[in-house]
Design brief:
The complex is a heterotrimer of chains A (497), B (100) and C (475).
Chain A lengths: L27 E11 L36 E2 H13 L3 E2 L5 E4 L9 E4 L6 E7 L5 E11 L3 E5 L11 E5 L6 E7 L6 H17 L12 E10 L9 E6 L2 H20 L7 E6 L4 E7 L9 E2 L10 H10 L4 H12 L6 H8 L3 H9 L4 H11 L11 H12 L5 H14 L4 H7 L7 H14 L1 H8 L6 H11 L6 H14 L1
Parallel strand pairs in A: 12-13
Antiparallel strand pairs in A: 1-10, 1-11, 3-6, 4-5, 4-15, 6-7, 7-10, 8-9, 11-12, 13-14
Helix pairs in contact in A: 2-3, 5-6, 5-7, 7-8, 7-9, 8-9, 9-10, 12-14, 14-15
Chain B lengths: L6 H10 L6 H18 L23 E2 L9 H6 L4 E2 L2 E4 L8
Antiparallel strand pairs in B: 2-3
Chain C lengths: L7 H9 L5 H19 L2 E4 L1 H16 L11 E5 L26 H8 L3 E6 L33 H8 L5 E6 L5 H6 L3 E4 L19 E6 L2 H11 L29 E5 L8 H16 L3 E5 L4 H19 L17 H12 L2 H14 L5 H22 L4 E5 L15 H5 L6 H6 L2 E9 L5 E8 L4 H14 L1
Classes of the chains: A alpha+beta (497), B mainly alpha (100), C alpha/beta (475).
The complex binds magnesium ion and zinc ion.
The site of magnesium ion has 2 residues of chain A, from loops.
Chain lengths: 497, 100, 475
């Protein structure tokens, strides 16, 4: 352990090069992220007290959590499994690993050391593909414990500076974390946002974390540097406390501009840890590297090595659900949408793509099912509680013009309200019947006769005039006409002239 | 082998260890640590180039527990033995001076 | 002197069959405490009321025909670095004064489950750092056999309590010899089990990769019985061996016929002649009983001392960081939290503890790790390798436990290195994680007891107890 630094060196030449449009005034931006996610376990990483957010302070404490004299850590199997899921989902190699103590004093760090992984982490050498097929390397994804929470009181309330005292809650202490360290492969703030968004989607999909940035169960530290293409990387600054995807973008844009302006005016970027203040949209210096902490890492003697064997890794791998990228692609293919479309992204994130797949499976129309899901199930992330067969039946009725899209919407609402139903019977009960073309044409002619002015201007190329005519047909048909069919008929009549 | 320990190093180590030593203690500690480290030079006689460090005497791996919740300690009992507590939390003096 | 000490084996069987009352046993101990504790200072705390209540309960259970456990009525003194729920646990440090743990150490629970009666918490060198119990923040313990002398350490209070008849037996903890050396200096049996044999859960850590809890008793059979109770897998300690406690009581009568006893030919010098004479006598006794003595070499033994005095402080510097005045123990208030840490720890820790925290912090810090801690771990490997070579030729190895008999107060306090040399024979076992024990064998200077150390490989408790049984018969 001669070189005890694990972080990626900052003097590498860039292998991933920004495109001309991505450069900022000729400068290339280089970003790497360290993302901490709290794992969705029942208990803490090294003890049996509950891993729960939002309860009364100090109600999930035990001798290990509090670092009481004589307390010893014992590793949580489920935390290891979830960490392995993360590693495998990020295409990492899962390897034998050890735990180290990272020694430093802070009131919310009960033992005055954090148990973390150091030179032998659980997951190494993976990657994550951004939706736009940009590959971001994953250096490592390791297990470690969270700290407690300090509240600063008195003085200027809520701030460290000028506070009179602080209060410590250890409920969060010992909660299992996985720290996911990317390689410095990101070249724009947009890619950084996509990276965090995609990572979040993966974590949700594999059930490893609830990944709520606003509650702190997913937290980003962003490393930013700038340099001229083809030259070594610049000195990087680490921005802490970036608590939303939007802030990731803002913080990077701000910091890149700050560094470029600094260098351009003859200054030098110092290696610093910065704090992102979202309210004013700027970074502040937290500390400079000169007073780097000396963490005195050494192997944790109270724990033994973790060496998942091939069979265990394989069990976790085969149990992994299909990941968001693959699901988006499948859904796009099934519904005829673009895999980059927002609708596809949202439905996959909400886990509703499986339902659409089921509708298609029983012979339904997937494209219409996607619209139904957007219409009727946007409010709750839950899987629709309507039999896929009923939705499939509805989609076919609409496709075959047995009901209009407006009628379909009404029927869907009723299906949702009743948790399903016989679509054919419901259609009949409502008196929804597909109008035959003769009846429809009669209504259309009636509408033209009633409003010759509108018809004349429509014929003269005034497209907006069609609205009044369609509206009139709808009124005449008591809403039973299909708007699309009416439009088509009017268009046909206008052309035939 | 690094050179003998200096007074400045002893002061830095004391800061790292959060031990507020007075001048006399720093002086005494500098001498005693120097003596201990001098003694450690004995091992220079050994060829350790191909020796694997031994961290843990008995090799075990994969010691794991099931993810099952056990009751929390009683907060009042725990806070009663804390030097200072307030609002269900441990109270400490203001957190400053970490960026020395 | 307290010549008529009861044994664990006798008390347990007599109390269980109703021929002796647990209260009577306890009252004998309490009477001895009343007579001599002021002079000896074996205890930081005597838990008189709890002990009486417990002993009474056991007698009631016996009369009611209930099962009372393997240690019914056996009075036990606990080293004051083992957590006892609701009972002060101080590690003989000002920084923990008044702290009552909210939980019991695993060993405490196991003893209680078998009917043991806890007499109190015994004095130690602060945080078990020392070899004479002179480093206690609450004053030294005196050797009951000669009160001008130390009882050894760091489990000096636990050894003195048994030697003075304050308890039937006691538990100590051994990081570099802290059970064996005081047992030797007080004429008792002391066992350092294989690392992982006895749970460390609830033992306030000193050197986590070295610490083991073990018994201090008047007889080898007592030690065997206590081992059978406290050893065995504990899911709360990740380094606990995944196996049940060994059966040892049956080993004692087996004799040593055909066993191979190692004699270290390159043993570090410095032992006094009286001690070496008894070691020779022990070899003779075992030879007479049918064992063969074989020569082995331990070229790195002396370096073990050097390695130990970096490995243990390094681990301790981290283990003792949690004593920060935030969650438990004593705080010295200050204007900000960092000043509070510094002031609390400066006022709360004694000199020896500070010295070791400083040394350990230094050895782990950036730029020095490889030169010190990293090297010490390599020396540790050499020791283990030396043992492996030796145990290919023998079953156990005999050495002195301590280079001298009990020494006088102040003899070694001025020079830390001289004090550290007390542990030269005991330390290698901890570094290797092996088993070892000290048994009294004859007397030396001033008629004081000499301890012979039996070293055994990992999980070598059975042959070790066979040899101990033989030495006890021959002494
Ligand atoms: Mg980090
Ligand atoms: Zn981290």
């Amino acid at each position: 352990m001669t070189d005890r630094s694990v972080a990626a060196s900052s003097v590498n030449l860039s292998s991933i090069v920004a495109t001309a449009e991505q450069l900022i005034d000729g400068w290339e931006l280089v970003v790497g992220l360290e993302v901490h996610v709290e794992l969705a376990t029942k208990t803490k990483l090294f003890s049996a007290s509950a891993n729960r957010f939002g309860d009364e302070p100090n109600t999930h404490i035990d001798p290990v959590t509090l670092g009481l004299p004589g307390a010893l850590p014992v590793l949580n199997r489920q935390a290891v499994e979830l960490a392995m899921r993360i590693g495998l989902a990020l295409n990492c190699r899962v390897q034998p690993c050890t735990f180290h103590r990272k020694n430093y004093f802070y009131p919310d760090l009960s033992k005055a050391y954090q148990i973390s992984q150091y030179d032998q982490p659980l997951n190494v050498d993976g990657y994550l593909m951004l939706p736009a097929d940009v590959r971001v390397g994953i250096e490592r994804a390791h297990l470690e414990e969270d700290t407690g929470k300090s509240t600063h009181a008195g003085g200027t309330a809520g701030r460290i500076q000028g506070s009179d005292y602080s209060l410590i809650d250890f409920n969060r202490a010992g909660v299992p974390l996985v720290e996911i360290v990317s390689r410095p492969d990101i070249r724009t703030s947009e890619q950084a946002k996509q990276y965090v968004g995609e990572l979040r989607a993966i974590l949700l999909a594999i059930g490893a974390s609830d990944a709520k940035m606003e509650e702190g169960s997913m937290r980003c530290d962003v490393n930013v540097s700038v340099h001229k293409p083809g030259t070594p990387f610049g000195t990087r600054c680490e921005i802490k406390n970036v608590n939303s995807i939007r802030s990731v973008g803002r913080a990077i844009d701000y910091e890149a501009r700050r560094q470029i302006d600094l260098i351009s005016s003859g200054g030098v970027v110092k290696q610093q840890t910065l704090h992102w203040d979202d309210s004013v949209g700027r970074t502040n210096v937290l500390r400079t590297k000169e007073d780097a902490d000396d963490y005195r890492y050494f192997l944790e003697p109270d724990l033994v090595p973790l060496a998942p064997d091939a069979a265990w890794i394989e069990r976790v791998r085969v149990a992994l659900p299909s990941l968001p990228a693959a699901r988006r692609e499948a859904l796009a293919k099934l519904t005829g949408q673009s895999k980059a479309s927002e609708a596809v992204a949202i439905i996959v994130e909400r886990g509703q793509d499986a339902f659409i797949g089921e509708v298609a499976q029983v012979g339904g129309d997937a494209a219409r099912a996607l619209i139904y899901v957007q219409q009727a199930f946007a409010e709750e992330p839950a899987v629709p509680r309507v039999p896929a067969g009923d939705v499939a039946a509805l989609s076919l009725m609409e496709r075959n013009a047995k009901v209009t899209s407006t009628q379909a919407k009404t029927l869907l609402a009723e299906l949702v309200a009743n948790g399903g139903g016989d679509v054919l019977a419901m259609t009949k009960a409502k008196g929804f019947e597909a109008m035959d073309m003769n009846a429809l044409e009669a209504f259309v002619d009636q509408a033209i006769a009633a409003d010759p002015e509108a018809w004349a201007s429509y014929q003269a190329g005034e497209h907006k005039a069609i609205g009044a005519l369609v509206g009139a047909v709808m009124k005449l048909s008591k809403g039973q006409a299909d708007g699309k069919a009416v439009t088509a008929l009017l268009q046909a009549k206008a052309t035939v002239r | 082998m690094p050179e003998a320990i200096s007074r400045e190093t002893v002061e830095k180590v004391a800061r790292l260890a959060r031990l507020a030593l007075n001048d006399a203690e720093v002086t005494r500690m500098t001498q005693q640590l120097a003596g201990m480290l001098e003694h450690f030079r004995d091992v220079d006689a050994l060829d350790l180039s191909n020796v694997e460090p031994l961290n843990q005497p008995i090799p075990l791996t994969n010691v794991l527990r099931d993810d099952v919740v056990a009751p929390s300690l009683d907060r009042d009992e725990v806070l009663a033995s804390a030097p200072a507590a307030q609002d269900g939390r441990f109270r400490v003096p203001p957190i400053v001076g970490f960026e020395e | 002197m307290s010549p008529s000490r009861r044994t664990v084996v006798d008390v347990a069987s007599a109390v269980a069959n109703g021929s002796l009352s647990a209260v009577a046993v306890l009252e004998e101990n309490l009477a001895a405490i009343t007579a001599r504790e002021t002079e000896i200072h074996a205890f930081n705390l005597v838990t008189v009321d709890q002990a009486r209540e417990r002993a009474t309960q056991i007698d009631t259970d016996v009369r009611a025909g209930k099962t009372v456990g393997r240690l019914a009525g056996v009075t036990i003194a606990l080293k004051d670095n083992m957590c006892t729920r609701g009972v002060e646990t101080t590690c003989s440090s000002k920084i923990l004064a008044g702290w009552k743990p909210p939980y019991d150490a695993t060993v405490v629970r196991r003893l209680a489950d078998e009917g043991a009666v806890f007499v109190g918490k015994t004095n130690l060198d602060e945080f078990a750092m020392g070899s004479s119990t002179e480093n206690s923040a609450f004053g030294p313990t005196r050797n009951p056999l000669d009160t001008s002398r130390v009882p050894g350490g760091s489990s000096g209070g636990s050894a003195a309590a048994v030697a003075a008849g304050f308890a039937t037996a006691s538990l100590g903890s051994d990081t570099g010899g802290s059970i064996r050396q005081p047992a030797a200096l007080c004429g008792l049996v002391g066992v350092k089990p294989t690392y992982g044999m006895v749970s460390r859960q609830g033992l306030v850590a000193f050197g986590s990769s070295l610490d083991q809890i073990g018994p201090i008793t008047t007889t080898v059979a007592d030690a065997a019985l206590l081992m059978e109770v406290i050893a065995g897998h504990d899911p709360l300690d990740s380094t606990s061996l995944p196996q049940p406690a060994p059966s040892l009581a049956g080993e004692l009568g087996k004799g040593v016929q055909g066993m191979r006893i190692g004699r270290i030919t390159d043993m570090p010098a410095g032992s006094s002649p009286d001690v070496l004479a008894q070691l020779e006598a022990a070899f003779d006794a075992l030879r007479n009983a049918g064992a063969t003595v074989v020569d082995v070499r331990m070229p790195s033994m002396l370096y073990g001392l050097t390695a130990y005095y970096l490995v243990a402080p390094a681990e301790a510097s981290s283990n003792l960081a949690r004593f920060d005045g935030v969650r438990f123990g004593v705080r010295v208030d200050a204007k900000d939290v960092n000043s509070m840490y510094g002031a609390t720890r400066a006022a709360g820790f004694g000199d020896e503890v500070k010295r070791r925290i400083m040394l350990g912090t230094y050895a782990l810090s950036a730029g020095y790790y490889d030169a010190y801690y990293g090297k010490a771990l390599k020396v540790r490997r050499l020791i283990a390798d030396d043992f492996a070579t030796a145990y290919a030729k023998c079953d156990v190895i005999l050495t002195p436990t301590s280079p001298t008999v009990a020494f006088k107060f102040g003899d070694k306090t001025s020079n830390p290195l001289a004090m550290y040399l007390c542990d030269v024979f005991t330390i290698p076992t901890n570094l290797a994680g092996h088993a070892a024990m000290s048994v009294p064998f004859g007397t030396g200077e001033a008629g004081l007891p000499v301890g012979v150390q039996i070293l055994a490989p990992a999980l070598g408790e059975a042959p070790m107890f066979r040899v101990a049984g033989e030495l006890e018969r021959a002494r």
